[in-house]
Protein: L-ascorbate oxidase
Amino acid sequence: MIFSNMVLIPKCKSRVILFLWLLGITALLNGSAVEARIRRYKWEVKYEYKSPDCLKKLVITINGGTPGPTITAQQNDTIIVELTNGLLTENVAIHWHGIRQIGTPWFDGTEGVTQCPILPGTTFKYQFVVDRAGTYLYHAHYGMQREAGLYGSIIVGLPDGKSEPFTYDYDRNIILNDWYHKSTYEQAAGLSAIPFQWVGEPQSLLIHGRGKFNCSTLTTPSLDAGICNATNPDCEPFRLIAVPGKTYRLRISSLTALSALSFQIEGHNMTVVEADGHYVEPFVVQNLFLYSGETYSVLVKADQDPTRNYWITSNIVGRSAPNTPPGLGVFVYYPNHPRRSPPTTPPPPPLWNNTDPRLAQSHAIKARQGYIHTPPSRSDRVIVFLNTQNTINGNVRWSVNNVSFALPHTPYLIALKENLTHVFDQTPPPDGYDYQNYDIRIVQENRNATSSNGVYRLNFNSTVDIILQNANSMSLGTSETHPWHLHGHDFWVLGYGEGKFDMFNDPKKYNLVNPIMKNTVPVHPYGWTALRFRADNPGAWAFHCHIESHFYMGMGVVFAEGIDKVGKLPSSVMGCGETQGLYRP
Structure:
């Protein structure tokens, strides 16, 4: 209608400019221009009874569901999430995993690091820009709430007119998880107890929120006869319907509390094309190994016998878990009935204790040609993090360089910005360990560690190398896989190795040509992983093991950089510790 009523007078350019300005205002009022740039979500977080694996228990939901709603946006969109805490007796915070929060470090969502927790009955507004296309996650970052069901996906597409270096017909999203029947409170109490009570292996594996626990194995009779019901629709297997001949982009993520996983689709190859938001030089796998916090995109072509359906499976690797059944789903060839089971038994998983294929996958992940971000040729600082299990005053803890991490009552970002030097330890943690004398393959005679809430202060814009060094735990012959996640940054993965890192010779083997950039990476048993990143994002950023119980037990650090460049903190992130009374919703 506007165009039909328009009369342009060539000599009157000002009228044309005025018309275009009014046209823009009209679009804004109609919402079209705004909606292309701002994505608004209103969420309520609360406990509800659900049966993800057929056993009914309290689960943390978002708007009634777990996994929560998928955030879908385009690169450079602004995301606004108004989060109401309906948990009644619990605080909450949500971390936007893989989103760098450039210019908004206070909305990273890490309780104790970047914000005070969101109190019961209150509403908190997160607002940030998704500056890069890719596959990301969100999840609780308060206590161990993530494993209670508070998680979901963030899918960021390219701007209009841009294309990806691979083609596919359909885009699908799958989150893998493990599942415990004990509440996070019960688990946390055991981890903090003397004597120590380990959480054990999970009862089930979930594929996009659905699993199958064998109800007949319940050892304790329940007062509620229906507490475990194999016919509950909540635990119907995940089904992915595929049209024969079509290619599917599967965005596969892991948010396990403990387990490293393998993922496969019976009889189908998967071509890996993306990892943590960065394009990968394509390579083909039958089993995709995932560690908690990682995201991948794989291309799968529905090119097998279309008259039958196929198993989708997830299995635990890296740990012996004989009582945890595999996660099962069905790859359904249209028009077969979705409930028709495959005619075969699920394919056998990789050997849980064979690290060779997992190391091979780690080495295979390189940046795609044409999309390589070349790392700086050298670093300004090298920090070696020895991953160990220790004791402190009788409690079992996880430590870095014999220091176990503890959160202060006042979040670091606020304390650093407001120069509240008395609220956390001003002595920085160590940059290394006794490299010459420490034997990574034995149980140490002296297992004692110390606790600290000090931070690593990084020079702004400096280049930092992190060497993750794995070692034996307090159990003989055991070295666990630890997936480490860095907030606020991506890092270059320069290399992996077995045994003790040699700081004189191993750097000569670094891949400085086409290293992948990621935000989460494993350090394999008795091995090392070398990372490099630029400390170019002002803020306070957590770097921690993404296994829930390990971070709870102290396996993490905090980096502080460019604090003088951080803008004015919103009062909504305050209200705890030394900031009590400063909170404004």
Q: What stands out?
A: Residues 381-582 form a domain with the Immunoglobulin-like fold (CATH 2.60.40.420). Helices lie at 13-30, 32-37, 184-191, 356-364, 412-417, 548-552. The chain has three domains: 36-163, 165-217+224-371, 381-582. The CA atoms of residues 47 and 60 lie 5 Å apart.
